[in-house]
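ESCALATION

Customer reports they have been waiting on this structure for their group meeting. Please prioritize. Original submission:
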Amino acid sequence: MRIWIALLVAPVLALTDQSVAYAVVGWACAHQSAYAIHLVHLIFLGATSACAVMAWQARHHAARSNATADASERDFLVPLATASASLSALTVAAMWIPTWLITSCIA
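Update from on-call: job pushed to the front of the queue and completed.
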């Protein structure tokens, strides 16, 4: 189950981060505070990183398991899920960088 969460939920979280951060910009400009935007990115970075950690733990769990029926499927899906969740976390971090460098509001 952890594999599917990392494989499917992490990319959706990265897309949701972009949508929610964009939606918060209006409030942040009205209050002249970018903390809300930073908080959104921090929450989604934590969530996508947690998905990557779960996939990484599933890799170690799959290595200890001796079930041969699903071994080839797990050998393919576990690294794919880890890469997908890690790439999603990297995407969220990359979307966070412009928030630090460029102001969202033009006063």
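Sent to customer with the following note: The CA atoms of residues 2 and 58 lie 7 Å apart.
Escalation resolved.
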